[in-house]
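Model: You mentioned two targets. I'll fold them one after the other.
Researcher: Yes, keep them separate.
Model: Target one:
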Amino acid sequence: MSRPTKNYKEDLFERLHDQGHAATYLNEAVDEDPKAFLIALKDVTDARGEGVAAIAKKTHLNRESLYHTSSERGNPRLNNLYLTLEALGLHLSITAAVPT
């Protein structure tokens, strides 16, 4: 008898409801590449069921601007990024780079 399986996105979205997992996911993405971070931020937003419209309402930012910000080609302003993370219950922090 085969076991039902979740697809990757369903499993990821389920795990992203946990604040700690969402923070780790975003930190790993930002370490990889800015585009990966924007995709990860959209994943966290979608996983929470917030959607861009809900984030726009919470942050008082323009919805179209947020769609562009969270796209792969986006280039968010730091303030918009800060407000988006805050609306998701997360915050931005800086750590020292590990010497290579």
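Model: Target two:
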Amino acid sequence: MATIRIPAPLRPYAGGNSSVAVAGGDVSAALADLGQQFPELRQHLFDGEKLRSFVNLYLDKQDIAKLQGLATPLTDGDTLLIIPSIAGGGH
């Protein structure tokens, strides 16, 4: 199984967990499993079937967008990080 690390702002929707073990052979399947475990979390990650634009996913410190996207394969022991983009700046 792979592990998905949950950032602090999303933990209330994941039962307070900082990480969750998920099943799935690729990122898409792992996210589907996460969504089944925590349906309330899914709406914060997806807009319909599409990953929200401000949600970035990293596999072992590599942006999955630079790998194979949601089709990026996962193996046992992999850690997937959810990193929400933060808007800001200006005074």
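Researcher: Noted. Anything on target two?
Model: The helical segments are 27-37, 39-45.
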